[in-house]
Automatic annotation (TrEMBL):
The keyword Phosphoprotein does not apply. It comes from Pelagibacterium lentulum. The chain crosses the membrane at residues 7-29, 71-92, 104-126, 153-175, 261-283. Belongs to the binding-protein-dependent transport system permease family. PROSITE patterns: ABC_TM1 (PS50928). Residues 67-276 form the ABC transmembrane type-1 domain. It is found in: Cell membrane. GO terms for biological process: transmembrane transport. One of its GO terms (cellular component) is plasma membrane. This is ABC transporter permease. It is a multi-pass membrane protein.
Length: 290
């Protein structure tokens, strides 16, 4: 009887396992293998070059620039999107007029395609006529080419990412806030606890599991969200907004250097794995407390 149940269980899991291995694990293994081979060109087949692609990678100035840009991008988008999401969740987690409208307005940027979001923000950034320059003109400031100059291009696309993903993270925080028993707030009010103390001593520790979940997703998004780069800057000007995933696309599909693109992909996955594991170890003690 137990053996039959195991057979049924594996048969039920089989379709999902086939898709998982066929479209996730096998491509990942093939990508790792391809990183040790050269790219085939015409009639010239690929040859085994060992660590040649990795040696080229660490001598590639554009890769170094993309890594630095991605580090800055992640260092800004991760804490900023989490903080903004938490503030929005706290704001709509109370009885105020137009609550449903506010929640919908905060969440709307998340459901918009990032390509559409990027086009909307291009109008905001339009030199001289965009929203930001119109506001700046009221205070006597001149126009700025936000996405067309190296000093501001990366920060311009970073702002788009924060605006786009904060609404999604707000939903998770709002769900976490609704699980906190109202009796805790009532007891704190009887003791004369200030709102800030209640948040720091009660709310924040109780929503730490959600914070861990959101931070891991924000880290993944910092490396995988590049749709707006295609529309707004294409990595320019002068690689000022070049991110790692867009560089992988550039090498793999524009220059058809599949071996080098596989190497870049392996490095990106390794970075994400290390950062994800580090986040779990750092936040684990604060999440699982007694």
């Amino acid at each position: 009887m137990i053996k039959r149940e195991w057979i049924y269980a594996w048969l039920l899991l089989l379709p999902a396992l086939v898709l998982l291995f066929g479209f996730t694990h096998l491509p990942a293994i093939q990508t790792l293998i391809d990183s040790f081979w050269s790219t085939p060109r015409g009639r010239r087949p690929s040859v085994f070059i060992g660590l040649g692609n990795y040696e080229r990678l660490f001598a590639d100035p554009i890769f170094i620039r993309a890594m630095v840009n991605n580090a800055i991008y992640a260092a800004i988008t991760i804490p900023a999107s989490i903080a903004l999401a938490l503030v929005m969740a706290l704001f709509v987690h109370r009885r105020i007029a137009g609550l449903s409208f506010l929640r919908m307005a905060y969440f709307t940027p998340t459901v918009l395609p990032l390509i559409a979001v990027a086009n909307i923000w291009l109008f905001f950034y339009l030199p001289g006529f965009g929203l930001f320059d119109q506001v700046r003109a009221l205070f006597g400031f001149g126009p700025v080419n936000w996405v067309g100059q190296p000093s501001t291009a990366l920060y311009a696309v970073t702002a788009v990412s924060i605006w786009n993903q904060a609404g999604l993270f707000m939903i998770f925080y709002l769900a976490a806030l609704q699980t906190i028993p109202p009796s805790l707030r009532e007891a704190a009010a009887l003791e004369g606890t200030s709102p800030w103390t209640f948040f720091r001593r009660v709310t924040w520790p109780l929503i730490m599991p959600t914070t861990l979940f959101v931070s891991v997703n924000a880290t993944i998004n910092a490396f995988r969200m590049v749709d707006h780069i295609f529309v707004m800057t294409q990595g320019g000007p002068n690689n000022a907004s070049m991110l790692l995933l867009y560089y992988i696309y550039d090498q793999g599909f524009r220059y058809w250097d599949t071996g080098y693109a596989a190497t870049l992909t392996v490095v990106m996955v390794a970075i994400l794995a290390l950062v994800g594991i580090g986040q779990f170890f750092v936040l684990d003690r604060r999440v699982h407390y007694r």
